[in-house]
Amino acid sequence: MVGQAVKGVVLDDSVLFLNSNGDNPNHSLRPATDALLRHLWYSMFRTGISSRLDSSDCKDIIKEKAESHSIDCFSLNAFLTEDDINEIMLSWGDIRHSILYVISSERKDDIKQLIDQGWPVVVLNVQGDGACENLGRICISKLEELPLSICRLNRKAADCSPIVVGYTMKPSRELDFAKRGAFPLYPTDNGLIFLPLTFDLPLSSQLPEVDMILHKATDEILYVELSNSSDLSNKITYSSRMQELQRHIEVHPDLCVLDPLNNIRPVLDRLETQQILLRLEALKSEGCIIRGPYFLKVDNFNEAILVQKLSEAKLTLPCIVKPQVACGVSDAHKMAIIFDVEDLKNLDVPLPAIIQEYVDHSSTLYKFYVLGEKIFHAVKKSTPNISTLTNLNQGVGPLIFDSLKSLPIVNESQQHLEGKSSDKKNKNINIELVQNSANWLRSVLDLSIFGFDVVVEDKSGDHVIVDVNYLPSFKEVPDDIAIPAFWEAIKNKYENFKKASP
C-alpha cells in the first residue's frame, strides 16, 4: 500500500470481542466497537469483518453489526490462508491496494501470513508489553487508536500535505454531520482529513497530528452562572475534557480553531446578541429595514414597574419570553408566549430572561446559513400570527414550550385562513438585504460557520432577525451543495489563519 491512502479496513473478529478465544461466555464486544464502525461507515470506508468464531452468539452479533453498518462479512478458515486473503482481494478489487487489516496480537501466525502477502497490518496489542514486537509496522493498544493510525497513513500517502481537522462534538451531532459524508478520514477534494478526537485517549497523543480544531463547545457546557449581571463572560463552566482542550489551545497559538471560544460567546448570550442586532438598522435597502426584535432584559417577572419598562422598550403583548442563556444548558430553550401581564407572574422560564417582540409573519421562517463566504437559506413553517395564537390559547395563561421539541404551530387549514386575513405588505424576502446582513454579522462576530433566523413582519415588511446560532446543522441545504461549502469554509479559515500568523 506504499503511496496509497487507506480506503478499506478489514477488522478481524479477534479485535471486536473482549475475549475471542471462547473463554468469555458473554461474547462481549469491546466498548469502542460501535463508535469505530460508525466512524468507518460514515467516512465512506469500505469495511469488512473477517470471522472465524464458531459461536452462534458471535456470528449473530457480527451479522447484526454488518447489516446496521453496511459491512461485508468474510467467513474464513480457523487459520488464515492465502485463499482467504485472495477472497477479500477479489471482493474489493477496485481498492485492493488500499486495504488495511486490523488483527489481534494473539494471532501471530495470521499476522505473519498477512505480512508475507504484502498487506499493511495494524496489530491490536491484547497481551501486554512486548507482544507486538516484530509483528507489524503499526501497533495500537486500544481500538480507539485506529482512526488516528489511519489518519497518519493517509496523511503520509497524500500527494500534497493535507490539513488534518480534529473535531469534537456530542455523538448525536457528530452522527448528523458524519452520515452526510462531512467527516471523511481520507483527503477531501480540497485536501482535508477529519480526525475524531476522543477523550478516551490522551489529547497529547492526538493533537500533534492536528492542524486545526473544529468544535461545538456548547455541547460541553456543564453550567452557566445565572445572576443579575448582564455579562456571561467567565461564568461558563465547561466539562473537564473541554477545559483540557482549551488549555492545549492556549499554549499552542499556532493551532487554528474554528471558532475561538471568545468568538462564540456572544451567541451564547441572547442579551449580547440583541445588542449586536441593534446596530443592523443602518443596513437599509430601498426602504426595507432589517433589524433585531424589540426586547427587554428582566431579572424579576414580578417587578413593580415592569409594565412601564415594556412600554419604553416598544413592546406590546403578546410577547415571547426566552432565557438569557441561549444554549448549552438544559432549559436554554424553555420559552413562553405571554398574552397578558398577569402571565408573567411566577412564569416558569429561567431568569434572567429576555422579553422579545412577537412578530406577525404568517407562519413563515427563513433560516439562513453562513458557511464561510457562501450563504444559503431555506423556508420553514413557523409559529402563527397573534390573532391565531390568541384563538388557540383562549385565555388560559402563558403558552410554554421547548423550542427544540415542539413549536406551537397551526395546521394547513388554519394557516390558509391566516394567510388570507393577514395584512402583509411584502410577501417576498429581500435576499440581497439579508445577505448583506449576513456578511456584516460574519465580520462583527468573526465566525466562519453560523446561522440565523429571519421573519418578515406582515404590516411593515421589516426583516427581523429573531435568532443567531453557532455551527448549525444546515440540514435543509442539499448535501451535495452544503458539504463542499462546509469544507471550503474550513479550508479558507485555515489559510487565512496561516496568512495572519507571524
Automatic annotation (TrEMBL):
First-tier enzyme category under EC: transferase
One Gene Ontology MF term: inositol-1,3,4-trisphosphate 6-kinase activity
GO terms under biological process: inositol trisphosphate metabolic process
Obligatory cofactor(s): Mg(2+)
One Pfam family linked to the record: Ins134_P3_kin
Occurrences of domain Inositol 1,3,4-trisphosphate 5/6-kinase ATP-grasp (ranges): 293-479
GO CC terms: cytoplasm
Keywords annotated in UniProt: ATP-binding, Kinase, Magnesium, Metal-binding, Nucleotide-binding, Transferase
Assigned EC number: 2.7.1.159
Record family assignment: Belongs to the ITPK1 family.
PANTHER family the record matches: INOSITOL-TETRAKISPHOSPHATE 1-KINASE (PTHR14217)
Assembly information from the UniProt record: Monomer.
Name of the protein: inositol-1,3,4-trisphosphate 5/6-kinase
Protein encoded by which gene: ITPK4
